[in-house]
Amino acid sequence: MRKISTIFMFVVALGLFTSCDNNLDQLPFDEFATDNAFITAQDFENGIRGVYLQLTAGGFYGGSDAGSMLSAPDVMSDNATLSQYGRTTKRTLHNFQYNANSTLLGTYRNCYRLIYQANQILLYAESFEGESKDNIVGEAKALRALAHFNLVAYFGKIPTQSNDANSSLGIAYVTDADVTIEPSRMTVQETYAMILDDLLDAKSKINASNPEGRLNKNGVNLLLSRVYLYMGQWQNAIDAANAVSTQVAARANVVGVWEDTSEDGLVFWIPNDAPTLGNNIGVTWSQGGVTSLIPEYVASFELTNLYDDGNDIRKDAYIFAGSVTSQGITTNFNGIKKLFARPGGQPGVVDYKILRAAEAFLNKAEAYYNLGNESAARQALDAVRSKRYLTPPSGETGAALLDAIRLERRLEFAFEYQRFFDLKRWGLPVQRSNAGDVADGSGTPSDVLSLPAGSNKFQLPIAQESLDVNPNLQQNPGY
Amino acid sequence: MRYKLPFYLFLLLFQISFAQDMLISGTVIDDQGVPLPGANIVIKGTSTGTQSDFDGNYSINSAKGQVLVFSYVGFETQEITVASSNVINVQMAVGGTTLETVVITGYSRRSQTVTASSTVSIGAAEIAELSPVTSIDNLLQGKAAGVQVTAANGKPGQGAFVRIRGVGSLTAGASSPLYVVDGAVIDETDLAAIPNEDIENISVLKDAAQTAIYGSRGASGVVIITTKKGKRDSDGTVRFSSRFGVSSRIKPNFTMMNAEQKLQYESELFALGVSAAGNLPGVTTTPGSPERQFLLDHEVDWEDLILQQGIIQNNNVSFSGGSEKTDYFFSVGHDRNTGIIDQISGFERVSTRLNLGFDVKEWLKLSVTAGFSRSTSDEPRDRNNVQNPFRAYFDYNPYETEFLLDENGSVILDENGKPVYNPTHTTFNVRGALLSEPAFTVQNTWLASVSADVSLIKNVTYTFSTGLNATNNRFESYSKPGGILDSIIGDPNNPGNKLDTGNYNLDMTISNRLNYNLEAGKHTFDVVGLFEYNTNEFNGYRIRSIGFPSAELTTQSNSTQVTDWNTTRNILTLISYGAFANYDYDQKYLASASVRYDGSSNFGADNQFGLFYSGSLGWNVAKENFFNVNAVDDLKLYVSYGTTGSRAGISRYAPQGNVSYATYPGGLATNPSNLENPELKWETTTTQNAGLELNMFNNRFNLVTDYFIRTTEDLLFSVPLADESGFQSIAGNLGKIENKGLEITVSADVFRTSDFRWTLGGNIIFLDHEILELPDGEDVTPGSAFNILWREGAKINEHFLVRYAGVDPATGAPLYYGADGNKYRAFDLPEDEDENRVLQGKSTIADKEGGFFTNVKYKGFGLRADFVFKAGNWINNFVKSNLISDGFNIDDNQAVDAFNYWRKPGDTNVYPSPLISQDELGAINSDRFLEKGDYIRMRNITFSYDFADNVLDHLPFKSLRLYVQGQNLLTFSKFFGDPEVGISSGETISYAASVAPGEATLYSYPNTKSIQVGLDVSF
Questions:
Q1: Domain count, chain B
Q2: Segments of B424-485 assigned E as strands
């Protein structure tokens, strides 16, 4: 009996000794190998959507509290005033107090993440011969160009900004899906040349129309027009703008565009609906409801008054009368409406509008003006103004025309990621009024009222964290 | 046992008297009054001795004046001088100060006598005396030399950061020791599932000679927890213990401003140019005005309002005993700790355990352990923002009220007649949110093991065992419709927001061991062959939905829209082959060796297996014939060398390049989820150890000291990538670190008589650590830390900051040292390539840490105090920087100290003047708030009374103990605030992600002090 049991136990033991070696080869359940993910046409559709998805990241067009593409160009301008009634997010940006320890690091990282994913698609697309190849390559290159363009606009100078701009520090232009790189920064000129390369190639390959939430030929042409404008290549800017076929939104639709009931004039936008997205991007400007508003920023008193009330439809579309009541006292605000909410909807959840047709006309107006063709400039300007005002201003010439073009650009694209870059490329200072954060101009004004033209702070600092991990990366002067 | 007394009396009557010798007899019982069979009784200085019999009785011939030495494994050795009485009854006390300490290595139990390495063992009696308020890992603090413990925070049920012999890895989570409960591996975070009362022993293995047995996972030390068993051949014992107490926040050593002070501060700063103060009441109301008086009349003590006095309750019943061939231990326990936040319920645990042992056949022994516990814990937001109650009571101004008031000072009611919470200047009222935003965790834990010992042939046994740890966690958080958060960020069309996440986690170890034992003369030899398989499977889910009809409906069955969902699964496996051998010659010469070959599934296909080995030699000099120092009982010298591995801190599929999918309008969106690195392999730690163990004066004095050098290479960590790559890091094996240390443990019975005993003891580690190699010699800025930099040649986890040079007495501006060593104002700092930030040798890791205790026993009375201390670590005090913010946080309440700012030229020892622009004041991230974390804290003080036998004779009890205990009642520290800092802010850097615990203060759950009364009774 004893013997039998002994043998039995030995057998059990031996069985256990030899049974489970192959259990060491585990594959994941929630993900799979990258090589499996870029084979079919559907894979490339999924892949390119993955690149677009990066546009919605916090530091890109998402509503990061640290500032993003969505908010910083207005926070760092004369369009917005810091509210003392919110959480005072992005205060260092608003006050131009940023330094290497507090800068748009999230934006920097999100842009390069998008660039990696675009590069990854381009790498796999080399061995893909499906019908959709050109369109995918075109989209990937356009997105790669857009991300680099945003980066160089923040962290480098803009070619038209100053004489030394082209030879100053641009950014690293990355075209390989290689995570071991430690690139150094190109000059501004080299960076813009790479952006143009990508956009021109994209233009030749991308479809004339693509599904919602994706770029198409119009979008690429509009981007090209902006890039040329930033480079001071006026005729190219005009030609590219002319290639945009989308028309400026009709006056009757302007409010609807910002309430997500109209798509008039939109060239590139991303539907923001749960459960696909449904992100609260409006938190970047305010939280709460109309009468329980917690504004982070309000439309500056100066900007609010620039809209001709009753005449300019944008006053209703862009700014709303918000308020909050605390300890029995009601405070009124010039709330920023662009990202506020769909009527009755969840606060802050609206579509991402990234490119609009009006820009093509305002780019054109500015380019014509710089070429000395005032009538064509006026014509392009009026194409926008006629769809904004009941009785549009008209007939300016000379310096007044330039002022009108610049004013219209400010009014049209307030809170739409342009103002800081526009002031920067025009070589102008940021000059804020000393009105406060309350609707009637009382309350607390911004701490810092101006950023002089030529200040090094027009180029944001590279984050210390980025410098720490890439020894080849050079900081901007003055930080 | 009471019926034995007449028998002793009988013996007394018949004492036999020889000229010199007399027959001494008596009974040896254990601490619970149960007879101890097999206890050794030796006449000191002779070879004459005997053992107690089955009923604990003994008899021995001895002479008056001779000393009888009573010893038993696991109990303190006692010496009693023979006087005129020839009955000597002895009650043995459980204790760790004897040579006969049992070392439980998980695969074996060995006597400390024949172990050539340092181990720390904490027994049930001591655990009962220390009864930690939070988790049992907190109990290790100050108890074992070389074991550094930092309480994560004061949240009931929260674990601690335990580091054995320094930080052994640079990866988050990898520096925690391996925890094994009855053979089942358990996560550090799950330790709160085990009630203290069920624990028989906690053994801490530090040295490679022992941790190498755990090969792959022993690199950061091993903590072995053994649960209680019944005693064979004994009557059943029923044991009941109960505690009740109150807890509260440890009061900080600074004061916040009251309403009057804050209002004054606001107006002072506004006058200096802090424009943000302009709309604050200190400026908008004038002193003496009715508006100002209104504010003062409605002053609120926010700390008092948000916090409460916590209640701690603990009840545990156990039944244990056994017959000749079986033993059993059964327990049921209930713990409750409400915590110190008003409005929520804190932590609660119910637990039960059944441990059984059977001798099935002469050749087959079985043992089964099974424990279940269920704990629930409320989860207040541990986040560095307005939703955190522990931040709120600092930020809210004392003139802000809980509810909105009308001009008469009456509370404003909403349309439902409920008071309307005041959003305060932070826009968020925590008092209301604690009710409208409930969040809690439920954890069910099953811990079980089965083992079978089979005697195969002579000297050979086979052991089959399985250990199982199954946990089932559920976390729910609800933003009630119409609640504080919902009304700010909710969707008005779909009010309310509910999140359910949870996981089912199974860890199973199957172990096969063949054991060969040989005792031949003075040679003792054993060797164990091991084959073991471990698998850990994790299954998780997450669902969020919005749109709830009522705040009372909390499950997602009634929601309108699901907005977020997933299920996840992952598996990690480990296969181990091992052989361990031990040898001793007459307990004089000791040797051991081990080898272990482990394969893990989370390494590259060609790098799955790693080989680990160890060896040790020991020599007990006192056992040599030539050694003739009477006072010395033992003098053991030992050395060891060994390697261990680690696979912790990387993901389960880390070597593989993978993608996952998200959604984007139009369909799926590919997301690169993991970067490929097939070279990924084991991190390896090599430990050299030399030690000495000295026992003197019949074990009244004990000293253990060890010196170790511990080197870890092929460190597993997230190797930083350039941001331009699109990623921040990739899992890799790079770098090398070293920890060196001297550990000293001393204990001594200063007085020892039959009635009175005073024991003093303590331990300390002197730790020295250095980063020897980093990838390409480049500095590394770790993620999940604030301002830590790793540099070759520097200590681990040094703060990397610009040096603050104080306030310029002429201008009131803050000054900083530039890279060139000169003082500058913020904007004048040198801007060239030179880095102004420096490493100053100031690490987050304490270089001296330990504990000491004093324990006085007089008859039944006991007074014990345990202290813990830590020195040499530096903490970046962010909370202080927020409370003394130079006007930057003028809308938040401030510490009274903030008034001490520069006012006129010549002022020194002051804070910078708010006159200086906020731009300049906030520009530099400096070491201005970097403070020494040194402290000594009285962790525990207990006054107890054990009823004497003669009293118990009249009571139906075997033992009865009453005690009063205080925890954390005294702290000595110069730190601003509480120096015991673990987690800064749990949602900024979580417990699991922390690479530098204690780097900075933020607003995590504060540590608490408590006073409890308790009773232990057995019958």
A1: 1
A2: 439-457, 460-479
B912-947: per-residue pLDDT in tens?
999 898 878 888 889 999 999 999 999 999 999 999
Taken in order B478, B481, B487, B490, is the CA torsion positive or negative? positive
* pLDDT tens digits, A141-185: 999 999 999 999 999 999 999 999 999 999 999 999 999 999 999
Nearest CA in chain B to A151: B724
Considering only CB atoms, which chain B residues are within 8 Å of A29?
Answer: 568-571
CB neighbours of A265 closer than 8 A, spacing ≥ 6? A246, A247, A248, A249, A250, A253, A257, A356, A357, A358
The DSSP letter of residue B955 is T
Domain for residue B459, yes or no? no
The amino acid sitting at B568 is: T
In angstroms, rounded to a whole number, what is the distance separating the alpha carbons of residues B854 and A332?
66
Cβ neighbour number for residue A467 with a 10 Å cutoff = 19
DSSP string, A293-312: -EESEEE-HHHHHHS-TTTB
Answer yes or no: is B985 within a domain.
no
Distance CA B173, CA B220 (A): 10
B 881-910 → A contacts, CB under 8 A: 891
Judged by CB atoms closer than 8 Å, whether chains meet at B275 and A444 is answered as: yes
Provide DSSP, B530-556: EEEEEEEEEEEEEEEEE--S-TT--SG
Residues 179-198 of A with CB under 8 A from B: 179-183
Q: Where are the alpha helices (DSSP H) in B323-388?
A: none
Which residue segments constitute the domains of chain A, with CATH numbers given? 39-251+404-432+449-469 (1.25.40.390)
Report DSSP letters for B777-833, one per residue: G--B--SSSSSEEB-TTSPTTEEEEEPEEEE-TTT--EEEE-TTS-EEEGGGS--SS
| Number of other CB atoms surrounding residue B510 within 10 Å | 17
Report chain B residues whose CB lies below 8 A from the CB of A113: 726-727
Strands B222-227 and B178-181 come out as parallel
- Give the separation between CA B789 and CA A442, rounded to whole angstroms: 46
In a domain, B42, yes or no: yes
The residue type found at B382 is D
Contact A328 B406 (CB under 8 A): yes
- Do the domain assignments include residue B496? no
What's the rounded Cα separation, in Å, for the pair B624 and A46?
77
- For A408-441, the DSSP string reads HHHHHTTTTT-HHHHHHHTTPPEE-----SSTTS
CATH number, domain containing residue B70: 2.60.40.10
Determine the distance in angstroms separating the CA of A341 from the nearest CA of chain B, rounded to an integer.
10
Per the CB < 8 A criterion, the answer to whether B102 and B110 are in contact is yes
Q: Cβ–Cβ of A288/B721 closer than 8 Å?
A: no
- Residue B491 with chain A: CB contacts under 8 Å: 345-347, 349
pTM, full prediction: 0.82
Q: CB distance from A468 to chain B under 8 Å? A: yes
Residue B40: domain span: 2-91
Which residues does residue B702 pair with via DSSP β-bridges, in sequence order? B695, B747
Size of interface A-B (CB pairs under 8 A): 285
Q: What does the pLDDT look like over A182-223, one tens digit per residue? A: 999 999 999 999 999 999 999 999 999 999 999 999 999 999
Tokens of A35: 């090589």
Which ipTM was obtained for this model? 0.94
Strand-pairing partners, residue B776, are: none
